[in-house]
Amino acid sequence: MGTEMKVTVGGLRGKMQLTGKGHTGHEVQIDYIPPLGEDNGLMSLELLMVSLASCSAHTVLSILRKMGKTVEDVTVNAAGDRQMDAHPTVITAIELQFELKGNGLDAPSVERAIMLSEETYCPVWAMLKNSVAVSWNYSIG
Amino acid sequence: MGTEMKVTVGGLRGKMQLTGKGHTGHEVQIDYIPPLGEDNGLMSLELLMVSLASCSAHTVLSILRKMGKTVEDVTVNAAGDRQMDAHPTVITAIELQFELKGNGLDAPSVERAIMLSEETYCPVWAMLKNSVAVSWNYSIG
């Protein structure tokens, strides 16, 4: 059993600015660094990192809520190493830094939520981990 | 030789709405389908597909321009099959449909540009092809 997902990218402006859309009315502006692009949006590789950071944030949030925890805010900072000396210029490693705020959040629960996201619940993490070395750390406060 | 890329996701609102940012001031709103989320943004898996669609669009555009072609517009529609019967609910297959408009665009050039993107130039495609079966087709008009 599966479900179909559809997105569209188009509306070329400037050198290579594009607009991306999913199933809602929300849009994302996409561009590339100069001189090929004009920096009028997120780069495709940044979107890939935002996808991983938000997917892991969502799954950690859901797992902590199922544990009965209250999460007031979650930030995920992602830092990636992009290989530039040969094509394709892939990201070879990503570090995810989780910053969690909430009442009663403790280290064992947060660690367990991140490990469950990595191993079982975050589909983007599962799709990338064969290609990218993903490491993580966290802070509670 | 490499370069570091940084993105951030945070600013939790509603059930799980988040804001994503790259190195420019541009933002993307991220959410999830109800009942877990409230559909106030793109889903993480949609962002992954937008990343692949825009990366392939950018590389096809650059290659066609290097061939001396003028591209007036490019649209990439991406359709993904998401596995829903077990975690992680990954996308197992993506079909990319390229729609190109421009003067003097011909089938051999467009096919060669897409094949070079797939095999050599699109980093997102390279990072996903071990996990996802990616197929493509195109139209010129």
Task: Tell me the layout of helices and strands.
The structure is a homodimer of 141-residue chains.
Chain A: E1 2-13, E2 17-21, E3 27-30, H1 44-66, E4 73-83, E5 91-101, H2 107-121, H3 123-128, E6 133-140
Parallel strand pairs in A: 5-6
Antiparallel strand pairs in A: 1-2, 2-3, 4-5
Helix pairs in contact in A: 1-2
How would you explain this protein's 3D organization?
The structure is a homodimer of 141-residue chains. In chain A, 31% of the residues lie in helices and 36% in strands. In chain A, strand 4 and strand 5 form a beta hairpin. Chain A has two domains: 1-42; 44-140, K homology (KH) domain (GMP Synthetase, Chain A, domain 3, 2-Layer Sandwich), CATH 3.30.300. In chain A, strands 1-2-3 form a three-stranded antiparallel β-sheet, with no helix packed on it. In chain A, strands 4-5-6 form a three-stranded mixed β-sheet, covered by helices on one side. The first copy, chain A, is globular, with a radius of gyration of 17 Å. With 141 residues, chain A is an alpha+beta fold. Chain A contains three helices and six strands, in the order βββαββααβ. The termini of chain A are far apart. Chain A has helices spanning 44-66, 107-121, 123-128, and strands at 2-13, 17-21, 27-30, 73-83, 91-101, 133-140. The longest helix of chain A is centred in the middle third of the chain and has 23 residues, at 44-66. At the A-B interface, strand 1, strand 2, strand 3, helix 1 and strand 4 of A face strand 1, strand 2, strand 3, helix 1 and strand 4 of B. Strand 4 of chain A pairs antiparallel with strand 1 of chain B, so a sheet runs across the interface.
